[in-house]
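Section 5.1 Outputs to date
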Amino acid sequence: MSSEESIQYPISPAAKPRRRAGRTVALIAVAAVLGVVGGAAVGYGIQAERAPTPLPALNQPTLAYPSHLPKGQEPVALAAAEDRKVKTDGDLRKLLLPKPAGTKKTEFADADGWMSLATYAGNFDHPNRALRYQLGNGFRRVATTSWQTGAYRTTQIRLVQYRSSDLLGARDHIEDQMAYMPEEDYARSEGESLKGSTNGRYYVFPVRQKPGYLDHYQARAYLYRGDIAVEIFMHDTKKISAKDISSVAERQLGRL
């Protein structure tokens, strides 16, 4: 056998197995497709012979509260005195603590008991930032009252109501204010828990003294109830006791 014959001979045997392998794969693929199509046809035929099953209605009025409860077990509607929403959605000023007898009107008192958002935000160190925060937090309105006792002591109460459907606006605002209290420029303490409240605290600030000025004493209380945040501020040139601020806060809490 010549060298030329030995070179040319293997070409044909090597090519044939590849063609047979390709044809085998194609046949298997066709069989698989036919099997799937056949199975689908058989399944469709079985389903077509079965009686139709009715689907449940998309709306299910039987689940509407309280119609799904047995007769006689429906909850009794709250009376107006028991429904907190009736109180908070009405005139918010009626929930403010009444001014004590014999007190004077303060310089910063609002004539009608309401405080605008612009005025409210202007009481913060950074009014623009406070304005954006309040708008983003679902601010609704502020009812306020204030009075003066003696020569210099002033007390101001603000009820800040929010629109938050999940009632987080009031909580977030109060917790933010409380977070500032331990700092150097504020009460420098964690404050004390307010009796009758699970979230309220009151703070007595250290005296501020400045040459040429009267001593400045300050106390605050913060709490929230539902969608209402409560802020109470007391200022005086004489010492403010813990009982002074806590007493006002507890009575205001009782109004809510």
